[in-house]
Specification:
Structural class of chain A: alpha+beta
Radius of gyration of chain A: 26 Å
Order of helices and strands of chain B: HHHHHHHHHHHHH
Strand content of chain A: 5-15%
Shape of chain B: globular
Number of domains of chain A: 3
CATH superfamily of chain B: MetI-like
CATH class of the largest domain in chain A: Alpha Beta
Oligomer: heterodimer
CATH architecture of chain B: Orthogonal Bundle
Helix content of chain A: 40-55%
Largest interface: A-B, 34 and 31 residues
Structural class of chain B: mainly alpha
Helix content of chain B: over 70%
Number of helices of chain A: 20
CATH class of chain B: Mainly Alpha
CATH topology of the largest domain in chain A: D-Maltodextrin-Binding Protein, domain 2
Strand content of chain B: under 5%
Chain lengths: 446, 318
């Protein structure tokens, strides 16, 4: 009796399993599980777009994505995913492409697109691709267009240039007597003019005059340092030979960082503030100046009652310079049908057409029809610092370099510690050399 | 008190008998069926653990790139030489060890103390069991967020508490290279205490009540009962807890990645963080494999050394 029972139960379970299997197989072609098993896209009509924009940029990008969806088939037309900024993003983009699951279009910093290209992660963009959506190479800011060209190929389509700029709190600097009658910041060119401005602001705030995020934040100290470093005449690039050599001008390195430590010791520059803390100080009037990329304009605009302005970093040494990078669109390596290429290019064109929206977020457009438009020229305070894009300093090419890269993190971490007065400029230099040795000595894995 | 050695002896005597009965079962041909049932797990084990481990060992001798197929050019021992001469590798190894030193003693001792205290609670014991174990079921991302809030410079709970007792909050626990690892260790102790606690509590509940009653009749104080009954009888649990804890602590990654990403500077970068950065950010899979093998050697060495010490101590006791 017991045996019979067991047999019938097994038969029943077996039958049920077989039935379930048949249903699952039948649903293979369209179900998510089926798509996962055979590696086909979930929804072939949907464009997959990856980016790394958070904060103000993130909301502008969402507006632009909505603009694309409205024109090209509704909310199902686009699947946009945002990843953590910097190395984690590029690691994911690389691994997804190596694993044959790349997005259709991705955002990359211009300085990061180069190592991606070297690693075979990107598809080149041909003139025919550009022409298919009515674009040509003359539609772009020549500096950024030339910068993206690698091995004679177009590897990325620049959307903007984003230089480091100086934000100022109008109330604070006004009390310090640094505004002219139009409410614009007076010219602070030269170290003496800048330092007396800092002293005047410190008197108003009763403490800090200028803030730079340097705790849990590596990129900002690097941006500030490299801006000031390149303001000195005749300095060598930090890295040369595609990252095989550290060629930094040591005297200039020490000169800039000694100045920074001097400001900290005088109480003008903050000793330890994280990214958000540095801007909060300026927004709340506890500091007059704040150095960061122009993208923080959206955050500044969202603060109720804050009156602020933005200018290029004043030239403190010999010539103006501003550390910058460009956001670009890249096509990760992938087998594409002509329709898919056209779809990807259409998306990029749609984004470029909305450059004005993007420019509201502070970035200087690379797309000339927008840059030259009267609408852009009327945009305040964007127009006040757009000139900084003209003397932009891109990070030196290196397989471990670029925005948010190992290079920036390694060097920026030490620079942040210099500002915390935890290490001397010489100590930072030897730590940087020690930590980068492995990268300078290693042949590029790309 | 005399019962304790008797208990140990019984379990030792029982072990060989059990092994023999398994042997005879295999001899009767039931072994084949067992293998069949193990096969699905075995396949996954080979595909996702043994296979990658062997690949790791091989690729550690090559300049393997993450973005290129194949092993790449032969590198010999140069990946190992590089890692062994890299200051940041040693610093990452030291931070791993530092984290282990910070977390293992509290996680073992506090778990033991809390288990004993909980075991003495007569009513509502479930509440304490739940309270201590609850953090453990949370994912590491949640834990990291909670403690990031607590350690937020200026406005976090920690800074507020410092304000109450009149200390001016500095740049924050996680921002200072000297205290960042301690901050991560505190978060980890709070998080994983529950696991060891449950193991100890289970061990405690195995100890027969009569032993304590007999000891109490003989006039042993509470402390003497813990010292001469609880501690010796929990020996096996302690051995297990310490081993599991050392291995878990050496494998530290999540909290560091989520709370400080190795910062400030590289002052909390741990071995697995270095492996991840080398393999997936620098695209140097070969070098990352070499670092992983070195970490594996350290973990195995520590586990073996601990085992040897344990065995020596046992022999001395016998």
């Amino acid at each position: 009796m017991a045996t019979a029972n067991a047999f019938s139960r097994r038969a029943f379970l077996g039958g049920a399993l077989a039935a379930a299997g048949t249903v699952a197989l039948a649903g293979c072609a369209t179900s998510p599980i089926g798509a996962g098993l055979v590696g086909s896209p979930l929804n072939p009509d949907q464009l997959i777009f990856w980016n790394l924009f958070g904060g103000g940029d993130g909301s502008r990008m969402q507006t632009m994505e909505a603009g694309y969806e409205k024109q090209h088939g509704g909310s199902g037309a686009l699947q946009a995913t945002v990843f953590a900024w910097g190395n984690p993003y590029y690691s994911k983009l690389t691994l997804a492409t190596v694993g044959n699951k790349p997005p259709d279009v991705a955002v990359a910093h211009l300085t990061r697109a180069k190592p991606l290209w070297d690693g075979g992660i990107l598809d080149p963009i041909t003139e025919a691709d550009l022409a298919s959506v009515g674009l040509s190479s003359t539609d772009f800011n020549q500096a950024s267009w030339d910068a993206q060209k690698t091995d004679g190929k177009n590897i990325a389509i620049p959307l903007d240039t984003h230089p480091l700029v100086m934000f100022f709190n109008s109330d604070v600097v006004g009390k310090a007597g640094l505004l002219d009658s139009d409410g614009k910041l007076k010219d602070l060119t030269g170290l003496d003019a800048f330092e007396s401005a800092l002293a005047a602001i410190a008197k108003v705030t009763g403490g800090t005059a200028i803030t730079v995020g340097n705790v849990n934040e590596n990129a900002t100290p690097w941006r500030v340092f490299t801006t000031l470093y390149h303001q000195i005449n005749g300095v060598s690039p930090f890295l040369s030979d595609n990252g095989a050599k550290i060629s930094v001008d040591e005297d200039a390195f020490v000169k800039v960082l000694t100045k920074i430590q001097e400001w900290v010791k005088k109480g003008w520059l903050n000793k330890g503030l994280d990214y958000a803390g540095a801007q909060t100080q300026m927004f709340t009037g506890k500091a007059g100046f704040y150095l960061e990329g122009e993208w923080e304009i959206t955050t500044a605009q969202s603060i109720k009652g804050l009156k602020f302005g933005m200018v290029p970093i004043p030239n403190l040494f010999d010539k103006p310079a501003a550390q910058a990078d460009s956001h670009t669109f890249v096509l990760p390596r992938k087998d594409r049908t002509p329709e898919q290429r056209k779809q990807a290019m259409t998306f990029i064109k749609s984004m470029l057409d909305q450059s004005q929206t993007w420019a509201m977020g502070g970035h200087v457009p690379a797309y000339l029809p927008t840059l030259d438009s009267s609408a852009y020229k009327a945009l305040e305070p964007q127009a006040d610092y757009a000139s900084a894009a003209g003397y932009a300093i891109y990070d030196d090419p290196a397989w471990y370099g670029g925005s948010g890269s190992t290079f920036e993190n390694t060097v920026g971490a030490q620079l942040g510690l210099v500002q915390q007065l935890a290490v001397s400029p010489q100590g930072a230099l030897s730590a940087i050399k020690g930590q980068l040795k492995v990268y300078t000595n290693t042949p590029s894995p790309l | 008190m005399t019962a304790a050695p008797a208990l140990t002896r019984r379990s030792q005597a029982a072990a060989p008998k059990a092994r023999r009965s398994i042997g005879s079962a295999l001899a009767r041909g039931e072994g084949r069926g067992a293998w069949l049932f193990l096969a699905p797990f075995g396949l996954f084990y080979i595909a996702f653990l043994l296979g990658p481990a062997v690949w790791m060992l091989i690729s550690s001798f090559f300049n393997t790139s993450t973005v290129r197929t194949g092993l790449g050019s032969f590198a010999g021992f140069s990946n190992y030489a590089e890692m062994l001469t890299r200051a940041d590798f040693w610093s990452a190894m030291w931070h791993t060890l530092q984290f282990t030193l910070y977390t293992v003693p509290p996680l073992v001792i506090i778990a033991f103390v809390f288990a004993i205290l909980t075991n003495r609670v007569r009513r509502g014991q479930w509440f304490f069991r739940l309270a201590f174990f609850l953090p453990y079921i949370l994912p590491s991302a949640t834990i990291s967020l909670i403690w990031l809030f607590i350690f937020t410079p200026g406005s976090g709970l920690w800074a507020t508490a410092q304000g109450w007792v009149g200390i001016t909050a500095g740049s924050g626990v996680l921002a200072d290279p000297k205290t960042a690892m301690i901050g991560i260790a505190i978060a980890t102790v709070w998080w994983t205490l529950g696991f060891n606690f449950v193991l100890y509590l289970a061990g405690l509940q195995e100890i027969p009540r009569e032993l304590y009653e007999a000891a109490a009749v003989d006039g042993a104080s509470n402390w003497e009962q813990i010292r001469y009954i609880t501690l010796p009888l929990l020996n096996r649990t302690t051995t297990l807890v310490i081993l599991l804890q050392i291995i878990a602590s050496l494998k530290i990654f999540d909290q560091v990645y989520l709370m400080t990403s190795g910062g400030p500077g590289i002052s909390t970068q741990v071995a697995l963080g270095l492996v991840t950065n080398t393999g997936f950010t620098d695209n140097r899979l070969g070098a990352a494999s070499a670092a992983s093998v070195l970490l594996l050697i350290v973990i195995v060495a520590i586990a073996v050394i601990r085992q040897l010490i344990e065995r020596a101590a046992e022999r001395k006791a016998a």
